[in-house]
């Protein structure tokens, strides 16, 4: 038993499951059905990739192990195990794992509390910045992704597909449907993209502009993200930029 783990029933269950899997002595090829490799002591807790720290588990066993791990450790180690469980949950988009409402509620409640504790100066990335090489790599990975800057060929194809199409006036039935859809809803303050704006960079530099959408296009920024900063919906800077509307 690893010294980090607490002595409780969850640790006993965990090692009973691991012992059973080790006795089977399965590998990826010899297993009769789908299995997943598991670190007995997770790498986030100091475990290694050595053979004596690896075991092959069924998908169900693997998930149960990661449900038990947060209950076997305290403090920062527990935070890491909850994050690992979250990544495991989001990585499987098929029906391999079935969650009961109770399990989902308990896990989600604990995970949200961890996120609250890891904000600001407690965040692992606080005060750090991506290198230029990493920024370029992220930028390249987003090319062609919906919502991000489109490739030149994509822009040309969009232009061709819209060529000759004229947006005519809406029909009376269409106007009526829109009118009924917004009836009774509270009117929000509408932000015109051509109003005056003050853009503040993380280094303290202020820029006054009169077209937010054009500024976003020129600087590879998402207009909606900048607008959220201006409305106060989101307070953290976006790619180093904050924004406010000049009234």
| Total number of helices | 9
The helix-strand sequence is: HEEHHHHHHEEHHE
From the alpha-carbon coordinates, what is the Rg to the nearest angstrom?
A: 26 Å
User: The biggest beta sheet, please?
Assistant: 3 strands, antiparallel
Proportion in helices: 40-55%
Find the structural class using helix and strand composition: mainly alpha
Gross morphology is elongated
Task: Report the count of strand segments.
Answer: 5
N- to C-terminal separation?
Answer: 64 Å
Strand content: 5-15%
Given as residue ranges, the uncertain stretches (5+ residues, pLDDT < 50) are none
Order of strands, main sheet, comes to 4-3-5
The overall average pLDDT, rounded, is 80
Throw out a few tags for this protein:
single chain; mainly alpha; Arc Repressor Mutant, subunit A; three-stranded antiparallel beta sheet; two-stranded antiparallel sheet; 9 helices; elongated
Overview in brief:
With 247 residues, the protein is mainly α.
Structure write-up:
There is one protein chain. With 247 residues, the chain is mainly alpha-helical. The chain contains nine helices and five strands; from the N terminus they run αββααααααββααβ. A hairpin with a 4-residue loop joins β3 and β4. α3 crosses α4. The longest helix has 17 residues. The chain is elongated.
């Amino acid at each position: 038993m690893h010294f980090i783990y607490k002595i409780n029933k969850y640790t006993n269950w965990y090692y009973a499951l691991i012992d059973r899997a080790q006795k089977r002595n399965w590998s990826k090829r010899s297993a009769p059905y789908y299995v997943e490799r598991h670190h007995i002591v997770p790498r986030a807790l100091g475990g290694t990739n050595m053979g004596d720290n690896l075991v092959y588990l069924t998908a169900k066993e693997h998930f149960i192990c990661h449900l038990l791990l947060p209950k076997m450790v305290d403090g920062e180690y527990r935070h890491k195990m909850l994050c690992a469980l979250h990544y495991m949950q989001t990585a499987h988009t098929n029906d391999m794992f079935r969650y009961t409402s109770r399990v989902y509620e308990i896990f989600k409640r604990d995970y949200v509390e961890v996120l609250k504790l890891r904000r600001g100066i407690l965040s692992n990335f606080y005060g750090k910045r991506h290198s230029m090489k990493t920024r370029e790599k992220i930028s390249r990975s987003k090319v062609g992704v919906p919502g991000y800057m489109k490739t030149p060929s994509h822009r040309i194809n969009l232009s061709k597909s819209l060529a000759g199409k004229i947006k005519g006036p809406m029909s009376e039935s269409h106007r009526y449907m829109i009118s009924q859809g917004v009836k009774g809803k509270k009117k929000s303050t509408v932000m015109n993209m051509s109003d005056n704006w003050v853009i503040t960079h993380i280094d303290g530099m202020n820029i006054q502009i009169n077209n937010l959408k054009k500024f976003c296009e020129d600087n590879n920024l998402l207009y909606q993200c900048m607008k959220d900063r201006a409305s106060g919906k989101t307070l953290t800077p976006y790619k180093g930029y904050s924004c406010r509307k000049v009234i």
